[in-house]
Amino acid sequence: MIIRPAKNILGSLRLPGDKSVSHRYAMLGSLARGTTRLANFSTGADCASTLGCLRQLGCVVRSAEDGMVEIEGRERLAQPSASLDCGNSGSTMRMLSGVVAGHDFLSRLHGDESLSRRPMARVIAPLQQMGARISAGPGERPPLEIRGVSLHPIDYRMPVASAQVKSAVLFAGLLAEGETSVEEPFRTRDHGEQALRAFGAELTRSRNRVTLRGGQKLHAIQAVVPGDISSAAFFLCAAALFPGSNLVIENLLLNPTRAALLDVLKLLGARISVINLEEHHGELVGTVKIEHGSLKGTKVAGGQSVALIDELPVLAAIAPYTRDGIEIRDARELRVKESDRIALVAHNLRAMGAECEEFDDGLRVPGGQKLHGAEIDSGGDHRIAMAFAVAALRAEGETRIHGADSAKISFPEFFEMLERVVER
Questions:
Q1: What's the average model confidence in pLDDT over 24-31?
Q2: Is 18 a catalytic residue?
Q3: pTM, whole model, 2 decimals?
Q4: Pick the catalytic residue: 112, 310, 377, 381?
């Protein structure tokens, strides 16, 4: 994909449904009584992998061209006749492991080459504590074989903050007898908890600790999945780069555990307003308007890095255009995503002529730099491809992004939508 420089970002957008919400609604819909109907379901390949696995587990799943997905719940899933294909989706593999661990049959879960390199130890450990028998490849990487059993509850303190692991343990806890608790070191996105409540489950939270009683029955829902704020991040950061930008994004997920990007952009100096804020199934949804402001600089660390883990690559990609630069720390998790995102961001920034300092857990990118067009290596990683499409909009000359097709993993419409709001 070739990206040419832009003058402004102008217009309005409605984005495909949030990936995190779509995954969780689909999985819980498979366990609920009745038919769950989900409008604006994520169009990404990752969520399609979840739907494919649910079909393999005996669910009737219907997908329409208008973004509507219907899932006929089974309460108890059926033994799959073949290995469950999770594609590139770590979300599918980790959270679905919690679901199948509570079913008395053998499941095998595999993924593509990228997913096969990603560590699964953090989800294997708590599920084994609950009684599931799990084997994995070398280094506790995929494929996974899970012999589901009648699970027992646990009180689990997560060594590393992970919303996917938290959801996996809670989903398994729903199928266990007794109360399961999960305590996280930092507050992570709470879509799993909100989704469980939406489907009728009761759970309690005390600070960073969530407790769920097993054996509760779920009931099907009808919902519109709000727009994906991690996808919105690319457009918001692009709009922040140009003096004449004026962008509106409607029906956007604004869950407080996901909206940290808006706070960071405000800190940098972008002018942001939120209107039409409503609550749907426990999730806050609204319209965001962003206009350019003189971008300063900031440091992202600690719990903020956890909250912004998906948005950090695009923040690093626009850092050279800020006045004081951006430093990112406590983000070692970026090393084990679809690629080593720290290394790839640093490599591609340097290819565009920027200076940056790479750490084991992050980056420091000075501000006040001018970038030029370059050959960008996405590493087959959707967020790297999209982040550098944004950086290229203000660079001098054309930028060629290799592996741009990887955007289909989360956001197939990205490049088309970007062209729709770019003024040249």
A1: 98
A2: no
A3: 0.93
A4: 310
